[in-house]
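During the second half of the funding period, the structural biology subgroup turned its attention to how the target accommodates small molecules. The most pressing case was magnesium ion, which had performed well in the primary screen but for which no bound structure existed. We therefore specified the complex as follows and requested a full 3D prediction, including the ligand pose.
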Amino acid sequence: MAKATIQYVCSSCGAKAPQLLGRCPVCGEWGTYEEEVVESRQHSAISRQISKTSLPQRLQDVQATEEMRIDMRNGEFNRVLGGGLVPGSLVLLGGEPGIGKSTLALQVLMQQGERKTFYASGEESARQIKLRAERIAGNAENLYISSETSLERILEQVKELEPEIVVIDSIQTIGTEAIEATIGSLSQVRECAARIMEFAKTRNIPFIIIGHINKEGSLAGPKVLEHIVDTVLQFEGDQQYMYRILRAQKNRFGSTSEIGIYEMQQNGLREVTNPSELLLSTAREGLSGIAIAAAVEGVRPFLIEVQALVSSAAYGTPQRSSTGFDGRRLNMLLAVLEKRVGFKLLQKDVFLNIAGGLKVQDPAIDLAVLAAVLSSNMDIALDAGTCLCGEVGLAGEIRPVNRIEQRIAEAQKLGFKRILIPAEQKIDAKRYSIEVVGVKKVTDAFRLLIKG
Ligand code: TYD
Ligand code: MG
């Protein structure tokens, strides 16, 4: 007989403790511990999976062919998965409520044409799913749906139907009868995921499970799930903007540096194959505080608009606020501006914004950030035909960036006349029709930009 014991688990980081703790010693969050009933068979789903292949094999003897992939017929989705969905894999699609996870999942299934697919929802009735599907363009001739909250019944339906792809929406709204915990609790979420994983692997059917994330940006019952699944995709974006970014946070079958970009429209999500055109506003000519950066996310280059507003601080402590760009990095760059360029920003508020609601981690946009701040501070518009790329070091030097050729090519493609790049980087300027100018220091770049 399975013996039940009680343990306490942090819902934010998954740390376990024998007693209820007010503050998690691992992640430092308050009030995140939840009671969990552990039955010894709870771990069996995972251990069974491992024990099947428990005999050691010689590495040489292991047959490994390139993983077969299911083409999802959705370019951005394929890209983020690393070239398609791997049969038998378990993908977690996470995101804030209302961001478009259900829409994306349903739409991808509707693009499968003749393939048999299955969408099981614990959130919506069949009628609601139908209404959603009617908004989305697609050919759903072989899409089966079911409104169901019992995992056992869903898996029965999958056995019967034998679909090629299954979506479960969402992991927090389904439960297994094997354990007593309430639906949505940590134990349920984890147990369901482990059972789905085992089922997916033994039947070689890929599952996409949807998971809501809470306001702090972590998946509810998060870390525990991340360990279980093969791939964690995050669907993010600003509710104010229509762009949605799909990112791989973990991927056993591909890189995590790729992003997919969508635009939410009346009839579902449109794939954005040329992000630059969306992210650049057309009426920026003559406006101060705007600089264009040639950025790269994953392996994809695109141009983004960096906007800054510098104004005199109304109260004692000046404000520094940044959207879409790391706030600490902004402070560092402002310090460089003070110390190396001689700008007095101590009594100024500085607001920085990456247009389009994008979050950018690429350090190559540093130079554009500084240029935007400078432009706003002097209230002089920068030359609209110039774009920038370069990381800025503490000494005010412009440091090399990766994928420089792609950045230049993208700027050229979008009709820019000139691009400033780190002087250290040797490129064959004759290959491009755009003027490529190397800059060593922030001050060199400013001189070129202000002169026009
Ligand atoms: P939804 O997929 O329900 O979000 P989630 O599953 O992540 O909670 O998306 C909800 C939003 O998307 C909702 O505000 C309506 C909007 N939407 C469109 O703009 N166009 C569409 O075609 C669809 C289906 C939804
Ligand atoms: Mg939903």
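Two results from this model are relevant to the next phase. The pocket of magnesium ion (ligand 2) is lined by residues 101-102, 123, 169 (CB under 6 Å). The chain has three domains: 1-41, 69-271, 277-451.
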